[in-house]
Design brief:
The complex is a heterodimer of chains A (243) and B (271). Chain A is an alpha/beta fold. Helices cover 18% and strands 28% of the residues of chain A. In chain A, helix 2 (29-42) links the parallel strand 1 (21-23) and strand 2. With 271 residues, chain B is of the alpha/beta class. Chain B is built from 13 helices and 8 strands. The termini of chain B are far apart. Classes of the chains: A alpha/beta (243), B alpha/beta (271). Chains A and B meet through loops of A and helix 7 of B.
């Protein structure tokens, strides 16, 4: 047995989200493509490097027409990464995958007729007055029971009560548990390395911050039953008692 | 108006059926009209524990499917005249229970009884969710060991989400009944202690039933524990639990710990 075999290096399961641009084709397709050409004409590189999703929710289209549409878009340098709201029969091999669970995001600003230089000149000033944005959080006022999951990718989760064995809390931000943590807590799941986990009493089955995890077996025995906080330093989960 | 109680646990073999029979018999002995319903279609046992297995003609599934009227399926207990049993079918499977059928049966029973005690099957599938659906309160039967406690925790989560009460935004009343408790083994650390279980589940304690040969003997005789030897430790524990369920405030005693002192106190008060 070589040493490298016994050495365990956990695989980091990271999440990352991109804002995709959604195109909603309208019938007749030819007319819609013409207006798309008009948009692209104003800014040649508008679609370059942007993830684009095709929304077919309200479009009555055949499989052949869809293949043709994707080819036409390809000619215009618009590469489709996924299709939303399509009937499963429309999507076959060699086509972009079907996507589900999309949530609305901010609108993209369409390229205007005005000269590009002016917009660029304004940009440094714009970053300077970045508006303050409140970080969302939720508070759960009862114990999280075995088999239940609290999933909140948008921000912090605070639980007033315990998290049972077999229950899990998944947060985009930090997790605060005013009770005993017996189940799983996964903080910073959307790639937030500064997320932390706090609990009043540690009996956890598994902890993870930004995809890096620790099972109960890997945890320091002296931390059991203590009030503890966890945070990330590089590739290591650090722990400290709060008393 | 009747109060509907579901006796549930998630895990099998912890004493749901025994507890249903014992609590039902204890409530009926108070003179209140009580029906115990077996929801364990396909694996019925409540008829055996109640000693009525030879008197079953029609069952819950017959009533739901319209093959029999409810009064035809209800079996009156021979020892306590206010106690009735609605047996489950042994030959059908759980899919024979329909949500609408159960609702009609429950609504009819509510008009005629003071207490409706539903004996839930183990698991978290259809039979268990239908048994808890119409309940006003739940008795969660738990053994002092980790797997039972975790399954009970799961059931509490379902009680707070899958019942009519929960769907109407009301809170389900929940009571913990700790069964098969052995104070000697708990002290040795072989079993979870009462406080540990209460801390994990964080619901009020209805009673602690000591591990006893009496329970097995009564089951095999087809007698609810509370109708067998009334002076036995489990019979007294169930009888007190039933009184607490009915709203009386009686301190819970932990078997083996303070029993002698409390027995003296109660003895003195009675004298």
């Amino acid at each position: 047995m070589t040493e490298s075999l016994t050495e365990t290096r956990p695989i980091r399961l990271k999440g990352r989200s991109f804002l995709a641009l959604t195109l909603t084709p309208e019938l007749p397709i030819e007319a819609w493509l013409a207006s798309l050409d008009d948009l692209a004409g104003r800014s040649a590189g508008f679609f370059l490097g942007r993830p684009v999703v095709l929304d077919l929710e309200n479009v009555d289209i055949t499989k052949a027409e869809l293949t043709g549409l994707i080819a036409e878009l390809g000619k215009r340098n618009v590469w489709i990464m996924g299709i939303e709201g399509a009937r499963p029969s429309l999507i076959g091999p060699g086509m972009p995958p079907a996507m589900k669970g999309g949530r609305p995001g901010p609108d993209f600003e369409a390229p205007s007729d005005e000269p590009a230089q002016q917009a660029q000149a304004e940009q440094p000033a714009a970053t300077g007055r970045h508006p303050a944005r409140a970080v969302p959080s939720i508070i759960i006022r009862e114990p999280v029971r075995s088999g239940q999951s609290v999933i909140f990718p948008e921000g912090d989760v605070t639980i007033i009560g315990s998290v049972a064995s077999g229950a899990e809390v998944v947060a985009g931000g930090s997790i605060h548990i005013y009770g005993t943590l017996r189940g799983r807590a996964l903080a910073g799941t959307v790639g937030n390395t500064s997320a932390r986990i706090f609990c009043r009493k540690l009996e956890a089955e598994l902890l993870a911050i930004d995809g890096l995890y620790k099972t109960a077996e890997d945890m320091d025995r002296n931390l059991r039953g203590q009030a503890v906080q966890f945070w990330l330093e590089g590739d290591a989960i650090m722990a400290e008692t709060l008393n | 108006m009747a109060k509907v109680i579901v006796v549930t646990s998630g895990k099998g073999g912890v004493g749901k059926t025994t507890s249903t029979a014992a609590l039902g018999a204890a409530l009926a002995q108070r003179g209140e009209k009580t029906v115990v319903i077996d929801f364990d279609v396909g694996l019925r046992n409540l008829d055996l524990v109640m000693g009525a297995e030879r008197r079953v003609v029609y069952d819950l599934v017959n009533v739901i499917q319209g093959d029999a009227k409810l009064p035809q399926a209800l079996i009156r207990d021979k020892r306590v005249e206010t106690l009735f049993l609605l047996p489950a079918s042994q030959t059908r499977d759980k899919d024979a229970l329909t949500s609408e059928g159960v609702e009609i049966v429950m609504e009819t029973l509510k008009r005629h009884f003071d207490w409706i005690i539903c004996d839930s099957p183990a698991g978290i599938e259809r039979g268990a969710t239908l048994a808890m659906r119409h309940a006003d309160a739940a008795v969660i039967v738990t053994n002092p060991e980790v797997s039972s406690v975790r399954d009970s925790d799961r059931i509490i989560g379902l009680l707070d989400s899958k019942t009519l009460k929960a769907e109407n935004g009301e809170r389900m009343e929940k009571h913990l009944l700790l069964t098969r408790y052995d104070p000697v083994r708990a002290a040795r650390g072989d079993m979870l202690k009462v406080d540990d279980v209460l801390e994990i589940l964080s619901i009020p304690l209805l009673g602690i039933i000591p591990e006893s040969m009496e329970v097995l003997r009564a089951s095999n005789l087809g007698t609810p524990v509370t109708l067998a030897d009334k002076t036995s430790a489990p019979a007294m524990a169930y009888e007190q639990a039933a009184r607490r369920l009915a709203g009386e405030i009686i301190p819970v005693t932990i078997p083996g710990e303070r029993r002698s002192i409390l027995a003296k106190m109660f003895g003195r008060r009675a004298a």
